Amino acid sequence: MNTLLRHKGWTWGFRSTLLLYFLLLVILPLLGVYVHSFSEGWRLFAENVTDPIAWKAVLLTVRLALTAAVINVLIGTMIGWVLVRCRFPGRSLLNSLVDLPFALPTAVGGLMILLLLGPVSWVGKAAGALGFDIVFHPPAIVIAMVFVTFPFVIRAVQPLLEEIDSSEEEAARTLGASGTKVFFQVVLPSMLPGILSGGMLAFSRALAEFGAVVLVAGNIPGRTLVASVYIYGQVESDNTAGAAAVSVLLLTLSFVILWVVNWVQTRGKSQ
C-alpha cells in the first residue's frame, strides 16, 4: 500500500486534487470578493468603506471581538489548565463539551442566548429590574462571540501543557521557587504561543460571526450593528459592492491575523 501511494501518479493526483480544492472553494471565491469590491472603481470602493454606518459597524465589530478574545484568553487558559492538570469526576465529559460550539449551528447558539438572557427569561427580568438589558445590546454580542470562539484557546493550550516536562517544575520548586513563581517563569512561557495563537484565532473568528450575533444584536447603527449583519443588510438592499467593500476589510484583517498566528506557532516550535 505504501509503495502504491509513493507512486508518482498517485502523488500527482493527490496534489492536483488538493490544489483544485483550494482553487475552487477558497481562492476563487476570495478573489471574487476582492474583484467585485473594486469592480466599479476605487472611488466607489472608498465611498463604501468610509460610509459612516459601515465604518462604525467595522469599528464596533473589532472592539467587541477584541473583548471576546480577551475573555476567551483568560477563561480558556484556566479551563485548559484544569483539564490537563486536574483529575475529577466528569472531566472527560467536560473535555468533550469544549468542542460543542464547533458542532452546533451558530444560530442555535444565538437562540440559546436569546432564551437564557432575553427579556422574558429570569436573568433578563433581573437585569431589567436593575436598569439594564443584555439582549439587543453589546453584552449579548460579546457573549455570542465568546460562545462560538470558546474552544480555540483551550485546544491551543492543552497540547503545550501536556508537553511541559514536569522535571523543570520540580527543579524550580527544589530551588525554592513558590508555586506562583513556577507558573509565571516556567509554565506560562511554554503556554504563551498557544495562548497568543488561540486568542488571535478567536478574534479572527469573532470578526466574521453572523448566525449567533444576528439573533441577539439590536442592529442599531453605531451601537449594536456589527459588520457581518451590515454586510447581510447591504446584500438584501442589492448593494453588493458595498457589502464586498466591507468584506474586503474583514478578509484582509483576517489574513493578517492568520499570518501572525502562523509566525507565532513557527517561532514557538523553533524555541
TrEMBL record:
Keywords: Cell membrane, Membrane, Molybdenum, Sulfate transport, Transmembrane, Transmembrane helix, Transport. The chain crosses the membrane at residues 12-36, 57-82, 102-122, 134-154, 210-232, 244-264. It is found in: Cell membrane; Membrane. It is a multi-pass membrane protein. The keyword Cell membrane applies. PROSITE patterns: ABC_TM1. InterPro entries: CysT_permease, MetI-like, MetI-like_sf, ModB_ABC, Sulph_transpt2. Pfam families: BPD_transp_1 (PF00528). Signal peptide: none annotated. The complex is composed of two ATP-binding proteins (CysA), two transmembrane proteins (CysT and CysW) and a solute-binding protein (CysP). NCBIfam families: 3a0106s02 (TIGR00969), modB_ABC (TIGR02141), permease_CysT (TIGR02139). Belongs to the binding-protein-dependent transport system permease family. CysTW subfamily. Part of the ABC transporter complex CysAWTP (TC 3.A.1.6.1) involved in sulfate/thiosulfate import. Probably responsible for the translocation of the substrate across the membrane. This is Molybdenum transport system permease. It comes from Paenibacillus chibensis. The lineage of its organism: Bacteria, Bacillati, Bacillota, Bacilli, Bacillales.
